[in-house]
Sequence to fold (989 residues):
Amino acid sequence: MHKDAISAAVLGCLLEPALAGLAAQLGRIGGLSEAEREIVRAAAETSALETVRLKTNRVLLLELNAARITGRLTGQDPRARWREWEERASKRAYWESLAEHYPTLLPRLERLIAGRCAAALTLATRFAADRPALAPLTHGAPGSAPITHGGPTEELIALSFGAGDSHRGGQTVAMLACTSGVLVYKPRSVAVDIALARLLASVLKDEPARITVPDVVSRDGYGWARHVQHRHCDGERELRVFYRNLGHWLAVMRLLGGSDLHAENLVAAGPVPTVVDCETLFTPRPPFEPTGYGLALDRAALLVGGSVLGTGLLPGRGLALGWRGVDTSAIGSLPGQQPAPKVPVIVDAGTDAARIEHAEVPIPAAVNHPSPEPVLGAYWDEVVAGFGGLSERLRRMDRAGELEPLLAEFADLPIRVVPRSTETYAELGRMLWHPRALHDEPAARRRAASLLARQAANLPGRPDDPAVIAAEVEELLDGDVPFFATTPRKGRLTGPRGTTWGPQQDLVEAALHRWRTADLALDRQVIQCALVSAYLNEGWLPDERRLLPSEPLGHDLDGRRRRLASGIMRRLAASAVRAEDGTATWIAPVLNRTGWAVLPLGLDLYGGISGVAVLLAAYQHETERGRAEPVPGLRSLLADVLRTMRRVEDRAAEQAAKRTGARRPDPVGGYLGLGSRIWGWLLLHRLGAVGRHEACARAASLVPEIAAALTTSSPTSSPTSSLTDSPADSPADDDLRLDLVAGTAGAVVPLLRLAEHHDGPEAAELAVAIGRHLVARARTGDGTAWWANPGFPDGLGGLAHGVTGIGWALSRLAQATGDPTFAATAEAAFTHEETLYAPDKEGWLDIRQDDDTAAAWCHGAAGIGIAATDLLDTDPRWADVVRRAARSCWSDGLGWNHTLCHGDLGAWELLGHAITRGLSEPGLDRGRLDAHVLSSLEEYGPISGFARDAFPPTLLPGLGGVAYQLLRMHPDSTLPSVLLPDPGPHTRR
Fold:
């Protein structure tokens, strides 16, 4: 939000009494010069002013609007009326008059301001007392022992509050610029920093550039720290040391149960990544409640939740409103790989039309990276190696009895616990300062308490004691983030306003037990897979080398095909998480609505368990016909996977039936979401894995959910949005995606196929309704049509997310219905795609890149060509598109990785179609194509593009799809393509 829209003159009347009192109190502190007192007073004013602005912007703009509408402003123009309103609002009487509508506003603001001033006074008092001990933090070399001796007197020359959230009466981290350098004030104990520094020195004593924490001066309940200056690495050697050191941090925090280590908590100081805030160690593990989705999913969730992911260091995408899709991790947070979240901003400031709207605001760059344009993929092996190497060293120390004494030093030191995310508190805080909440504070309190209690019921480990929840709400009403602390020996949390919560437990013993029983191989797999979460892409990271075979071999093609396919299936079976209740799943990178995350598989076909079920059914289908090698256990694994799918769907339906209130709808796309599940069930029936009745019934049960998603306007996952009831407080854009993968276009053909299988008009009617929605949302011009895409308001090309995919769906809908509007819009979409073809580059431009082409299924020639191949059956003009797409794929679509979505096996399918239809490059035949693909797989091993050595079993982005295409490589195979969301026409079985 535009923090300077409301001037200091308007808010000054609120601040002046408290600031005058602060100035008088500062005058009574000995050891401060007059200049230093003024620096503290001015910093407190700046901090309080910014906080009050953010809390009052909404209510003041609402009152401004009311004054304008009712004619109480008489200025000649909008700016004159703004100045007139400012003049009124700068008087204390104006604020007192607001009590009629907002009875608690003024008292709450006075408490907030008083807290900020008291915190400033406390800092000044402590600085004056500790000044003689602080000079070594700015003069001495970093990495020395804890500092207790004196040094040259430091003079304060600048001060800023607010480096982090405020807690416990307005206390925040502060930055102090002194004559010889910068200090950091922390209004919490820094004893844990000293203990961690000792531990690091003990376990990494032979590392010349070891990981560290800042030097500190520790006092009772607070401390001072050296300011760590960000510095980029100097050359390749330092870069490799830096990333190996990140692996060391992962190993240490895995041992210590560290959490909440986001980008702001880590500073890249050359080759040394320095954790500047290490208060959240020995984090208690929340209790786990069975989900009802099956023991395998519960087991997988526990494995992921207890893995190194819990540290917060590894890349991951946020879920909260306003931060959805944002990676705040200490290792991630890559520049250029963050969405621009929509946040409230004030527009037309300085006029009587000032109002709040939402706008995309870039996320400020952090200082956690060792280079201006970090290339995580090039150094990820160093991260994995650093984790593995130090973990093994720690295991050796533990066996020798050297580790436990080091951890015992932490037992009685204060630590912080974060049982609820800061984002949760931020959303509730905004709600509690909204005009409607200020008008009826008792109702807002009840609503906030209800939301926190509901969260605790759904997410074990969140405070559920009504007294604690009431105290949390009180803190939020005062503008603070609730703070929970304990000591590892005690374990029971001390919360806001003196409350306590949670069991007594030895957190050091618990963390050490979890570490000793941890599956470090799983942790390494999680680290390898987590890399993809740092990127806003389709789940692949180009390697420095291309995976082109050095010598394509044409002998024994079928035998080699069989061996490669069976090898992948053996790995798939071995990596499954299975349980005694007959359920099964996998842990892998999963693409959801916020981006990539390492999780148990979801239900979708793209990267979920439905796709794995299709693969298993296809392998069984081909094995029974002698076209694939038998692999023990696959039949029972398929049965377990199908059992899991049924249980998850049935349990989700039960929960939906009990749920009250609005719910953010699931994606409806043909690969991610409800559409994918429709054609997944129909395809499983076609492969003989399930009966027709079950497939149709389960697919048909999804139709009402798609219809609900289509009719839901501007859904939101925020638990507080219903309190605002103001369009200005919710992002205005429709959250319903339109593309083939995750959006409505992807549901069209699955619905049409369901209509062929299932009696009743609902599926076909819904497909038509989606078509009309797509036509209405199209942007047109110069005979072309395109659709806005998140982050790309001018649309994208290609099949998965762009105009070809939507055009293909509309074209198929036009064929089914004869509606000329669908046909015309599809034609306009294809015309738009042609505007992206670059003849000089012999490919289609990828709008996401600068003047570059793409040749993958998701973006580029392979997907465009596959859609054209399907349309070629009814229109011969598509032959030219197939020819050009095949040429682009042969020259630039191979050798990046082996997946269907963005690799060789997606290009292989298009090239095979082109060969069959006589549209391929001269000299390219099926034998040469198959030899190329098989030789690359043999020479490099199957590569998914996520990270080397990772094994994602999934269909489109993982190695499961490689096995599926190897099955289809047999000349007699009748397995359908999975590169269009179409299970094929209905045939009676």
